[in-house]
Amino acid sequence: MFEIELLKSRILTEGQVLPGNILKVDSFLNHQIDVKLLYEMGKEFAIRFKGAGVTKILTVESSGIAVAALCGLVMEVPVVFAKKHQTSNLDSNVYSASVESFTHGRTYNIRVSKKYIGCSDRVLIVDDFLANGRALLGLAQIVEEAGAELVGAAIAIEKGFQGGGDMIRRMGIRVESLVIIDRMDDDGNIVFRE
Ligand code: 5GP
User: Are 178 and 155 in contact (CB under 8 A)?
Assistant: First the structure.
């Protein structure tokens, strides 16, 4: 079984609380990647969504990709990441949604090629953080546009005090977060939900 306490202690010892309610966990999740830890997270998500018939994992670049990839490895399904930039190697036949970025304070479009999600898919959204829920809503919109089934969302760290998770759950979407932070402050105090 995944040691939730291990993830909590990594957050407490290595995490930095930045102004604006941003938790920096660059040493294992968002810059340097502790692959073994993310593999264990993937195993835990696979247990929680066992029997849900997931055929595809969907995330958004860039920081969701690592956790999604390890989840896809365990669940043995392809991982698709929504792109934030229109690049020449992304074909024009795309699903798109507009997302207000929490960390960058601006709105951007996310796009997924229609080749990679279809109406027979059962999609699990995976992301590193859930804050106001905008990224998740944008991804859910793409799943809906594709006519696919949204199985739920697997989140490494939910910042419960920002309310996105509650809003998404109220919409009837299943959200599984490994840890939920109820409070944090600029002095580095972090309080987890029990
Ligand atoms: P939301 O759309 O739920 O407000 O924010 C989720 C997205 O913003 C995630 O994809 C994540 O990359 C980024 N994000 C939100 N809060 C944090 C945070 O405290 N730390 C980091 N590193 N990223 C965050």
Answer: yes
